[in-house]
Amino acid sequence: MNRLLCFAPLLLVTALSAQHKTLEDLTKDAPLILAGRVTSADSYIAEDGEIYTRVRLEVAAVLKNTEDVSPAELAFDIKGGQVGDRVVVFTDAPRFEAGEDVLYLGTTTQPEEKINLASATGRKALDRIRQYREDSGTPVSDFESSRLNRFLNRQGKLNSDPETFLDLDATTCSAYMGPKWSTPATTYGLASSIPSTWASAIQAAATGWNQGGSKFAFSFSPSSPHTISLADLGAGSTLASTRVEFFQSSQQMVRFSMTFNNRYTWTTTGQAGQFDVQNIAIHELGHALGLTHPSASTCAEETMWFSAGAGETKKRSLEPGDKNGLVTLYGAAGTTTTPTPATTVATPSLTYFALATTKAIATKPLAIVFRGTNLIPANIEALLTGGVCGATGCTVKPAGASTTDLVFLNTIPAGSYTIRLRNGAGNPLSTPNTFTVTAN
Ligand SMILES: [Zn+2]
Q1: CA of 60 to the centre of ligand 1 (A)
Q2: What does DSSP say about strands 307-309 and 2-4: parallel, antiparallel, or unpaired?
Q3: Residues having C-beta closer than 5 Å to ion ligand 1
Q4: Could you give the count of Cα atoms lying within 13 Å of 107 in the half-sphere of its Cβ?
């Protein structure tokens, strides 16, 4: 049976038509299935420094319930979200947006799957659940049916065919998350939960991308902040999940981590009935460098295709769409980047620097104020080094800028940073200032 690598509702169309068991299994396993509307989804930073999103779901109809509760509303936290300029995405966990009408599968406190109802996929899923209940002798009651129908009717016109217009690049089978690394390289490290026998399979997956025709290179480093681990990702269909953190304004990645779900049985030799480490690692590393799932069914052979089967090893080798995406993001191997021309762009000259926040903490946006001359508002940016940005640095854009004043408003993970200004990438940097962000 195929499993989802990442949960992307529009892609379930294919899974539903090709592998009927997936949703039936989910339906069988989930303690709670309901239809409802997401009334709010608010991101916040918790004490552990991680971004979470508090989701509230108004329940329209309960389709299955083994927990003996009849919630009118669910409220639960999911990992990931956006606070200020800082964004954290978990590529494989369900995500919720305010206003969405969804099928929710899970427990009262933890979603396992989410399917957007305003799509052909959602209707198919609903029909399948109804059929499953008929078959298992617990049909949807008239009462539930009438509530559900009222709910569906108030949705207005359904998206006619979302999966076709959402497919941005069906010809090339390359799809992009948006953010990428500022330099074509990142390290990765292995947590102690990763069996030692997996190291070479993960290395082979990294090498697959390193030989994909671009300048990009993954390299193993025991001290890397970007870790790969094995842990419990729940009973849903997620095989593995990659956490990607980036700044919204500059679309620059600063951190990734990857987790294999220990609820599945893993193999490094493509053994039948088990999931192959290299096959999945190379897909997840594709997320870690900025690619996402191509959705056209003609792209099903790509490594970045959203689902994988037990015993499958075909993703170990990259396909044209994977390689094209890689090269588009990071440039072709062997080509040289155009050197920054000898510049006449003025270097920002600073006369004032201050943190306009009594305490610089990772859980709140940090206001940084500059005054000076030679500031070009359209191009000015700050280069942060240290902390999560390392020696390579992160670029952030100001929330407000004039030729003499700048305000940056960013939520920055804990660490000690050096900040310098420049009038656009490649131009000379101002004198440095330093600041420290504490965890709380
Ligand atoms: Zn994926």
Answers
A1: 30
A2: antiparallel
A3: 5-6
A4: 8
Q: What is the pLDDT of residues 134-146, one digit of tens each?
A: 887 877 777 667 7
The answer to whether 92 and 242 have CB atoms below 8 angstroms apart is yes
Determine the distance separating the centroid of ligand 1 and the alpha carbon of 333, expressed in angstroms: 25
Q: Could you tell me which residues are beta bridge partners of residue 219?
A: 187
CB 52: neighbour CB atoms within 10 A?
Answer: 19
Q: Of 18-22, 84-88, 253-257, 310-314, which gets the smallest average pLDDT?
A: 18-22
CB-CB contact of 324 with 289 (8 Å): no
Q: Is 190 helix (H, G, I), strand (E, B) or coil?
A: strand
For residue 190, what are its two tokens?
A: 């292995």
SS3 label, residue 359: coil
pTM surpassing 0.70?
yes
pLDDT at residue 120 tops 60: yes
For the chain, list the domains and their CATH numbers: 7-166 (2.40.50.120), 167-337 (3.40.390.10), 349-437 (2.60.40.10)
Phi, then psi, of 120 in degrees rounded to 5: -60, -35
Cβ(28)–Cβ(41) below 8 Å: no
- What SS3 class is residue 277? helix
